[in-house]
Amino acid sequence: MSDTVTQANLDSRFTSEVQSRIDALAASAEAGGFDDAIALFVSAIERGGVIQAFGTGHSEAFAMEIAGRAGGLIPTKKIALRDVVLRGSLDISALGGSSLERNPDIADELYAIAEAGPDDVFVIASNSGVNGSIVGLALVAKQHGHAVVAVTSLDHTMRVDPKHSSGKRLRDVADVVIDNLAPFGDATIELPGGIPVGAVSSITAAYIAQLLTIGTARRIAATGETPPLYISANIPGGDEHNRALELRYNITRNV
After folding, report:
1. In the Cβ-directed half-sphere of 234, how many Cα atoms lie within 13 Å?
2. What is the mean pLDDT of residues 204-226?
3. Which of 91-103 are b and which e, b meaning 16 or more Cβ less than 10 Å from the residue's Cβ?
4. Which of 35, 204, 228, 250 is the most buried (most CB within 10 A)?
């Protein structure tokens, strides 16, 4: 590495790239930019529904931020691609690589495995927003009358061709679209020679997930109700608190 491109210099540049996006998302939330998504979440919970979260590849981390974690909302479920192997019809050989996330034909099975109720809302994360399983599940959810919230990179998705036969991107299907502010290709800085590094979408998506969770909990609390939130299972009484509310919302945690 040249003297002019030190590790400290790269770290500082990446920190700046991350912080500028976090600041922009915080400003958007403060200005009401997430309010429509939060309203859908609150409405689903008030009607007895749950928030169905889905993401593939590294975007599965977004679904994990939404569903089943300490400080998060209990009426949530995580949908995972591997569900079609663990609980569905596909053989284990289907796992690995990117072919499964690009397969639109698994959308109906994913939806069936999710056992979505009529009042559920779907939140789907995908940086590119064009893969078959992502767009497919969003379309199936809409066909069954569910609202869909998308978390995607608008910069990236508009620069690549849709891979679903409908010709649609995730953003075209969703009722509410939240931009994760990741750049085209996700990486934010370059090493000498133009090698990209420093992906940011996982960081911004996790922040978005927490802003949505906080906003939903705050709005429920404002009605005088106690938000149904997980507490850590590693503190006294955590398991008992969480299980009681899981039973109330008929939540069963899967892998």
Report:
1. 3
2. 97
3. eeebeeeeebbbb
4. 204
Which H or E element spans position 114?
helix 107-114
Residues whose CB is less than 8 angstroms from the CB of residue 8 and which lie 6 or more positions away in sequence, other chains included = none
Query: For 184, phi and psi rounded to 5 degrees?
Result: -55, 125
Residue at 129: amino acid letter: G
| Tokens at 37, concatenated | 């998504």
Examine the pLDDT at 220 and tell me if it is beyond 80.
Answer: yes
CB count within 10 Å of CB 207 equals: 19
Rounded-to-integer distance, Cα 107 and Cα 116, Å? 13
Burial 105-122 (b: 16+ CB within 10 A, else e): ebbebbbebbebeebbbb
Q: Would you tell me how many other CB atoms lie within 10 Å of the CB of residue 23?
A: 10
Task: Give 73's strand partners.
Answer: 229
Say how many CA atoms lie within 13 Å of 109 toward its Cβ: 17
**Token reading at 59:** 């975007």
Asked whether 118 and 49 are in contact (CB, 8 A), the reply is yes
pLDDT at 211 over 50: yes
